[in-house]
């Protein structure tokens, strides 16, 4: 059994915002973690990026620093343009993801669900492509394979303007012991205004339930087991 985790997201910083505590937990336990990043986020903010350095180049470097902090061993850039994923032919995007998934054969895949959390079209497009690739590769005789969606608990984020799920549908991970690492990872994305704003929130509420939990929804296979553990027991 290939016990490894494959993250599939749209932009640099998606990995740090939603699942960095979970990633650190497993990478420190010796579980390999790799990341597919569909774009380099070149259409976003570029705070303190020197003249002559493109936003995409700056964000790629930021992501590489975050990956070292979190223990992500390899980043697979798909090199699509930020904001354009919804215009990419579905089969083409799915096949790109599928080719990497076939090579790595991960036991756990983590991506965005159909809501994209923020509703960003890139989040939605890459999450759907990852889901299609997962179903194509593991549709039969793969009971150990798991597909998770990053999500938020409705009880904690009732009025945040983000997509949430009822608490009884999700798996809650306590990342309090990894919060300092999460903050360091997000700090690497210093060109991004939303990263700076999120850091302010983390620091204000450092000891609250708001900052010390991360949430996943088990999309495949469906299960009522909400134990905070990504893998099946040996």
Structure description:
35% of the residues lie in helices and 18% in strands. It starts with a strand and ends in a 14-residue tail after the last strand. It is built from six helices and seven strands. With 234 residues, it is of the alpha/beta class. The longest helix has 17 residues, at 121-137. α2 runs antiparallel to α5 and α3 (90-104) crosses α4. The protein has one domain (5-220): LmbE-like (Rossmann fold), CATH 3.40.50.
Brief write-up:
Helix 1 packs across helix 5 and helix 3 crosses helix 4 (121-137).
Descriptive terms for the model:
234 residues, alpha/beta, 6 helices, globular
At the fourth level of CATH, the homologous superfamily is LmbE-like
- Share of helix among residues? 25-40%
Low-confidence stretches: none
Largest sheet: 7 strands, mixed
Q: Please tell me the overall pLDDT.
A: 93
Order of helices and strands: EHEHEHEHEEHHE
Give the structural class: alpha/beta
* Count, helices: 6
Number of strands: 7
Beta-strand content = 15-25%
> Which CATH architecture is right?
3-Layer(aba) Sandwich
- CATH-defined topology: Rossmann fold
How many discrete structural domains?
Answer: 1
For the biggest β-sheet, the strand order reads 3-2-1-4-5-7-6
Q: Note the overall shape.
A: globular
- Give the CATH class: Alpha Beta
Distance between the termini: 10 Å
Write down the Rg. 17 Å
